[in-house]
Amino acid sequence: MGNFFEGKDFNKKGFRALIPRYYTPKYKKYISEETKLLKSGVKGANRILEAGIGNGRLIRFLAPLTKEMIGVDNASLMLSQSRETAKNFDNVKIVRGNLEKLDKLFSEKYFDVSFCVWNTLGNVKDEIIVLKKLKKITKGKIFITVFKKGTLNERNEFYEKIGVRIKKVDKKNEVFYSETGLRSKAYNLQDIRKLAARSGLKVKNPKILAGVVLYAELNSK
Fold this sequence. Notes:
The longest helix has 18 residues, at 25-42. This protein has helices spanning 25-42, 59-62, 76-86, 127-137, 152-162, 189-198; strands spanning 47-51, 68-73, 92-96, 113-116, 142-147, 166-170, 175-178, 183-184, 201-209, 213-220. Helices cover 29% and strands 24% of the residues. The protein has a single domain, classed as Rossmann fold (3-Layer(aba) Sandwich), CATH 3.40.50.150. The protein is globular. It is built from 6 helices and 10 strands. It is of the alpha/beta class.
């Protein structure tokens, strides 16, 4: 990811890619819909994991619903910001780690529920490895949200609005590349079903959020 997740695009303006008030209307609506789904999905779980916690925007919504929430990230800026938010919650822990090596950090079936959202899956090197690791350490559901294919214009507008400097767009495969190293993919439901199948998972309850993001629940086969 180069320097993108260390805030290179945003300087001292705040990491606008994870601050909803800067978003376009469709992505603001997506965030609202996603938050409601996640609150419902994690309710009653004793241990939850956010794989790619970013700035910790979901902590205040989800930490009160569980006994223990752990967030994993590998960018220093993201860890710093999420730890600042986590100070307000005794049951939240932030851990530095590579999502492709989650099983080195946590024991098998450690979490009741895991989630990997806001297109984190579309930014990793190998989605299948990440999904396999999540499957290994999660007893129940794994929630994901990714950019939906067919929304190139909306994504371009979003990046312009928040101030991301796009270097190149692979329109055929719908992949955006920023000047600071971000590589952001998009998916359709068939793509997600294939990735899930190759990871030993099955897709349930897929939804399109605000017309721009694909949501799905993944369960072990």
